[in-house]
Amino acid sequence: MTRAACLFAALLLVAAPAGLAHASPGDGCSGAYAVDETLPSGARWQLCWEHHPLSGILYGDVYFTPRGGSARKVLYEASLAQIHVPYDDNGARFHDVTDYGLGDEDLNALTSADCPNGTRLFHGSKPVLCKRVQRIEPGYQHRGRRATGFALELFSVSHVGAYNYIPTWRFHDDGKIAPTVGATGALQRFGTDPLYGWPIRPSGTTGVSHIHNYWFRLDFDFDEGTDREVVDEVDHVRVGLTREKQVTTFQSESARSLDLGRRRSWRIRDLSVVASDGRSLSYQLEPSHHAHRFDGPSFEPWSAHQLYVTRYADCEKYATHNSLAGGCGSDVTSFVNGQNAYGQDLVLWYGLTFHHLPSDEDEPNMHAHWDGFEIVPRDWTPANPLPLAPSIASPGNPVSRVGQSVSLPLATSNPSGAALAFSASGLPPGLAISSATGRITGAALSGSAGNHAVTVTSAGTLGGQPGLVSDSLSFVWTVTNAVACDDGVDNDRDGATDLADRGCASATDATERSAGVACDDGFDDDGDDLVDVLDPGCANAQSTTESPACNDGADNDGDRLIDGVDPDCAVPSDPSEAPSVPWGCGLGPELALLLAPWLWLRRRRGPAA
Amino acid sequence: MRRLGLAACVLAGLGAAAASGAAAQPAPQGRMPLAAAERALARAGAELVVKERLGRALDEARFEVVLVERRRAGEKQPGRAHPRAADVFVYDYEAGLTRRVGVRLPTGEVDAFEELPGVQLPLSEREVRRAFEIAWADPRVRRRVQDLQRARTGAPLADPSELRSTAFVFDVRSNPLGANEAAARCGEHRCAQLLLMTSDHFAVEVIPTVDLSEGVVVQVDGF
Predict the structure, then answer these.
(1) Between vectors from CA A380 to CA A379 and to CA A381, what angle results, nearest 5°?
(2) Which residue does chain B place closest to A122, by CA atoms?
(3) Is A393 a residue whose pLDDT tops 80?
(4) What residue of B is the nearest CA neighbor of A51?
(5) Least confident span in A599-603, B83-87, B149-153
(6) A555 and chain B: CB distance < 8 Å anywhere?
(7) pLDDT by residue (tens digit) across A493-526?
(8) Are A134 and A174 within one domain?
């Protein structure tokens, strides 16, 4: 046995066992190459990633499990299938993926600073992929009800010449997938003719304008072993003042263009994979970034369209320069060759364009510019799969008085089952909300009368993340000063308190006094400096005059002498015109009638003094 | 097809595994990228078949291993597990074409050895270094680079090591209307489009195209 042969055999021993079938999430990979992330909102993404010398990072066997749902496969494989960079002066036309490569030595070793709040995933001993969870604020918001969204984010960085590309894939908790590419680094090419760029240095140097054509390859597979996919083109055609939806299902492989006027998008579905209502589960390709278009020369025919729908073929790997990289067919236009595309295993190739006009600000470090699009589930779940926010029922606009004890529960629905915590701002001083129950209790403090703009919030914790779902509600809480008929005080000192006082028709009356009743009206009706029942002229609070017998303009004792003319009246406030005589010594009937109220007033003088 | 299975080398194999640290890696499976041991096994298969079929050693300057990748062909066929295999792509400067060596894993059986005319995969690091040496030896390129550097900084480069070089493989199909007659042979020949950057991270405003098959600069700057 030769030494070389022995070494070869030794290598056999350390190589892997045969490949495994991967018909369920995670079957096709393990260790660092398997990503299994349950987002705080409860959605779960499972996928494999793979390093490739040309493509950089490939993603495969991508499964999505909506919150409370079951896992379903979305993609068999997804990759950045070319970055084509033609310069406006035709000085270079680069095909970065196939002619340079995004992997191997050109895949950056990520530092922890490159991946803040994330985990670096290693290919061998090299950290090449950053995995982290990004908050999406808001995931949705409807009036006060909102939920925080989350996305699993995976990105790598590849340096190509002076550029750093950052292919980034975000897998959202509502099932959306958002591929984007950032481009930063430094300008690559310079010239002198401003016709093809922008002067960027005092020396007259021109930064040459150029295009980044990003091509993505999306091999959808909904469930295992079905592959009966079709692609619909969805247009919205103007008819008079209306827009009519127009859906065209491709029967054969197709090359299609954006149509901004028709709001064109595309969706892919599997004829075998339907929801309980019979509708196809699908993913819609939303061409969200299409400000620029590239119309290349005849030797770049792929630039004529932005979407290509092709039957899956092993050897169709790159959108351009496919045959240079060992594949079949020169580019994506040659993949479209009339094959049946109805109910087949289909691949979408999508290209988007960014035209970069350099500026001084691109030196020495070029800003990162980002380009991408979205593929969004349609009819995948019966409703938005993000957790439902709690809902606080309006308590109206409460009114309470200073010192009044209140206890106001906030009726709140909590469909997600989140652990709720309540808070409030703007409550009148003296009132507080229970964090646990949401009940507002207390009594408004003195001096707090007025309108208070109150906002109550119910925030729910899910997946260990506080505030993941919440509802906020604003209302006005009015505090009034205490009123005399409900303050527990005998305000008019007539011996009756609040509603026991005849002056109080209800608890909201602001006075215990009775208008029109001289002995309970708060006035000195007879000018003797004594008011109401403090006036000896008042027999009681119901008396209709404060005037005593010696000041009432009447001959009270029948002696034909009135008030001050009557010698029995010493002063106008004398309560009786009758002479003061001992009991049983000729009391006239008039005096007898006055005796009882006189005695009553005598008793009242004591406490009033 | 030839298979090497040598039980006598068990101990050597275990030693290799321990030395490479491969035991710490998850067992390669499915769509996982090639492990270091698998790449080594694939290269060993390529060495073997090149020796057997061409009578030459793979490490000769004639050959350049330009790509080792996990084979994905056939993996979606219904009912099939991922066939674990590697493809080694070797550029043969003497033949002027790329060759593919297919190696099954983990058996090491070589199941393909084919010529791929017209295939131009990215350059190896060794090829990039050679392209730069050829370019720097060309007085037109050197003068142009130094003129540009002098204009930007006031002084020429003291040493070519102050430049960092990378390169695209260039095929005339990238720009058939812009290439001159010599560059038009790129594709048939193996060519590099060289990107130069100064140590202070400025891209040099010249992109020479180097015919590695001929060892000459075919186009000094762009097209």
Answers:
(1) 95
(2) B25
(3) yes
(4) B33
(5) A599-603
(6) no
(7) 788 888 888 888 888 888 888 888 888 887 777 7
(8) yes
